[in-house]
């Protein structure tokens, strides 16, 4: 066994044991004549790629946490199974990244110690399985949840400057095992190739900030006003969604708009409900088991009032915040019923907040009667018309004529040949770039984006100048006094230069010290 400076024999033996899954003493290594073959180097390269691949998935996993509640709802709709997939996702990802990272660190330490890289077949098998699992995760993401690729692009506006620093740091540390390998190998061609490849990668990284753009690289006095908060079905992290308790909790979070979903019962009473079936957010399976899968609109108002619309929140715990509810809130939760639109309008009027809603289901044969019933209830409620943000597209012209004071909100971007200018748009946050948001703001068009739960995403949209965001996490975003980070361009330039210069110095030190 080689005995390089700075690497004691027991340490080298332990490292080799962990990497190769067998105890190889100096005598055994000398007798077997162990050395690193081309195949061993190929497995090391594969290990490096798996680690990078898994690290990339970890980044995606953190990004999609913002939208994972939608995925939970989708799975429940398909399989009638409720599970917080965020916990499973993070645990599985943490196991994969930890395993590949430990193996990579062992391999780099062995290289520095001049030891053979004899990866055991068990590690090889597990690495292949890791690569297959991560590949399957990316494939599933692309097929079933393609909009998350756009979320990842948006996330780079928040993380780009810091990812650059991290990658430069990681590649700089890689100079030590690389220098050790180059000085030990006798193949000149391989030395030249690795040096050129490493140099090209580092030069590209040093120049990468030229292509990094972020709306949060600006002077503090240029920061737009904080976006207003729109409570997505109220405050669904603090109370059962689409209930009066959820509306009150949203008011406590200083939301300016209560966003909800309206359906109309079989006897013409508009009520708050998101799903076409009642199974997720009520105890309909216990009260009306034979009708549990029926459309929500097939129930009359008397039957709907018999349902418990709160206990599911404590049983399924759709958000981690449920565990921290007080005893008073828990008791209040179990008392929640399905509220009528009339009750919600009265609560909104008393709290002086606006209300915005979707009218479901849009493809129903009686949709016009749904519009008429909803419009009638709103006009009779006495709520000021300017506090009503009308989202449904169906029969919009009729609504404009009967209620000209409603704020008309459109779920699309403006058209080039728009007959009348749009004043309010409501879109998924993935559908608008920072440049479009700025342009709409300059043209006095109010932009509301949904659903925004994570502070990093809220920060990017804040810096971009969005008017408001729809959120599940109003209690979190309420506490934000400024974006997570805000850097003047001059400061960012200085950080860029310092990081790159330090990297160059460390790389030179590594190659000179190990020579």
Topology summary:
Elements: H1 9-20, H2 26-32, H3 38-64, H4 68-79, H5 85-112, H6 121-144, H7 147-173, H8 175-184, H9 188-207, E1 228-232, H10 244-252, E2 257-264, E3 270-272, H11 284-287, H12 301-304, H13 311-316, H14 327-334, H15 341-351, E4 354-359, H16 367-381, E5 388-390, H17 396-402, E6 407-408, E7 424-428, H18 434-442, E8 446-450, H19 455-464, E9 468-471, H20 474-477, H21 489-513
Parallel strand pairs: 1-2, 1-9, 2-4, 4-5, 5-6, 7-8, 8-9
Antiparallel strand pairs: 2-3
Q: Could you provide a short overview of the structure?
A:
The protein is an alpha/beta fold. Helix content is 54%, strand content 8%. Belongs to the glycerophosphoryl diester phosphodiesterase family.
Written overview of the protein:
This protein is of the alpha/beta class. The protein has 3 domains: 1-145, no CATH class; 153-214 and 487-514; 228-478, Phosphatidylinositol (PI) phosphodiesterase (TIM Barrel, Alpha-Beta Barrel), CATH 3.20.20.190. It is built from 21 helices and 9 strands. Strands 1, 2, 3, 4, 5, 6, 7, 8 and 9 form a 9-stranded mixed sheet that branches. Residues 227-481 form the GP-PDE domain. Its main location: membrane. Keywords: Glycoprotein, Hydrolase, Membrane, Transmembrane, Transmembrane helix. InterPro entries: GP_PDE_dom, PLC-like_Pdiesterase_TIM-brl.
Number of strands: 9
Structural class by helix and strand composition: alpha/beta
Query: What are the low-pLDDT stretches, counting only 5+ consecutive residues below 50?
Result: 1-6
* CATH class label of the largest domain: Alpha Beta
H/E element sequence? HHHHHHHHHEHEEHHHHHEHEHEEHEHEHH
Report the total helices. 21
Q: Give the number of domains.
A: 3
* Rg (CA only): 29 Å
Shape: elongated
- CATH topology type of the largest domain: TIM Barrel
The name of the CATH architecture of the largest domain is: Alpha-Beta Barrel
Report on the biggest sheet: 9 strands, mixed
Overall pLDDT level = 92
What amount of the residues lies in strands? 5-15%
